[in-house]
Each structure stands twice: as structure tokens, then as C-alpha cells.
Amino acid sequence: MFSAQTEAKFKHLASIYPQKRSALIPMLLAAQKEQGYIKPETIEYVGKYLDLNPSEVDSIMSFYTLLHRRPMGKYHIMVCTNLACLLRGSDEIEACVTRKLGIGMGQVTPDGLFSVIEFECLGSCTTAPAIQINGEFYENLDVRKTEDILDELQKRG
Ligand code: FES
């Protein structure tokens, strides 16, 4: 189901915590890194691995917006809409992203290149408004900068 490398990582993760279940989130992140999202069979597989009921895995997953239940875009954009960003114009950034990509929050572009979600604080409040794309921060944004970032990623394909 997973590459030898990911299986080795699972084995390692399941061995380093006093309680095996503590490896759940790192294992799900490793699975997602390989497969792009968390498939239902992954929930079963990881649950068995850690002696957890799939419904426990499923309910724990529901707390983590970084874990996806369906494929996201090649460029996954997280737009912070929490207070500091909101006060510094995140609504304009959000409108810019959705207008330029032609999708709503939580959606993926038809070509699979972009997906976008709202996020509650990226931990970069002093450089608001901020977004994160595939883990990389883009800060002190305005509409023009945001358009340039999206254009650049579109060019890269
Ligand atoms: S409020 Fe946006 S990064 Fe904290």
C-alpha cells in the first residue's frame, strides 16, 4: 500500500513513543505526503497499525485541517482569515485568490493545479496578511503581490 520508505517511517514512528497511538498524526502526514491525501483505506491501515479503531482515527483527523480527505491542488493555498490578517485586509486577499483561480474556498481548480482553504491563524500575525502555499509563507500581502504570486505559480505549472 505504501512505498518501502514510508513503511520504514511508519515502523520507526510506531516505535519511538511510549504509547503507539502518539504516532498517529505523524503517520497520517507521512501517508498524505506519499499519496496526496488520506484515503479511507489509509485510515483502516493506520488504525490497525496502531491498534486504533478506524472511527477513532477518523474523529482525530477531523481536528486537523492539514490532513485532507480528498486530493488537493499541486499548489495548496491556505489563506489566513483570523483577526490580525482580517484587520490588515485578508478579505481582499481571499477575494483575489478565489476570483483569479475561479474557485471557492475548499475547492480545487479543474486542472488540479490549485486548491484553496481558509485557515485560522498561520502563526505569522506580525506579518499579516499572510498565506501559506505548500508550507511556504507569503507575508505582508496586498492584492497586487498576491496576483503576482499566483501568476508565477501558474507559469511554473
Ligand atoms: S491572524 Fe493571520 S497569521 Fe495570525
Description of the structure:
- With 157 residues, the chain is an alpha+beta fold.
- It folds into 2 domains: 4-61, Arc Repressor Mutant, subunit A, CATH 1.10.10; 75-156, Glutaredoxin (3-Layer(aba) Sandwich).
- The chain has helices at residues 4-16, 24-35, 40-49, 54-61, 83-87, 90-101, 143-156; strands spanning 75-80, 114-119, 131-133, 136-138.
- It has a 4-stranded mixed sheet, covered by helices on one side.
- α1 runs antiparallel to α2 (24-35), α2 runs antiparallel to α3 (40-49) and α6 (90-101) packs parallel to α7 (143-156).
- The chain is elongated.
- The protein starts with a helix and ends with a helix.
Distance linking N and C termini: 29 Å
Hetero ligands: FE2/S2 (inorganic) cluster
Uncertain segments:
none
Radius of gyration: 18 Å
Helical amount: 40-55%
Descriptive labels:
single chain, about 160 residues, alpha+beta, Arc Repressor Mutant, subunit A, Glutaredoxin, 2 domains, 4-stranded mixed beta sheet, 7 helices, elongated, binds FE2/S2 (inorganic) cluster
In short:
With 157 residues, this protein is of the alpha+beta class. It folds into two domains: 4-61, Arc Repressor Mutant, subunit A, CATH 1.10.10; 75-156, Glutaredoxin. It contains seven helices and four strands; from the N terminus they run ααααβααβββα.
SSE layout:
Layout: H1 4-16, H2 24-35, H3 40-49, H4 54-61, E1 75-80, H5 83-87, H6 90-101, E2 114-119, E3 131-133, E4 136-138, H7 143-156
Parallel strand pairs: 1-2
Antiparallel strand pairs: 1-3, 3-4
The structure holds FE2/S2 (inorganic) cluster.
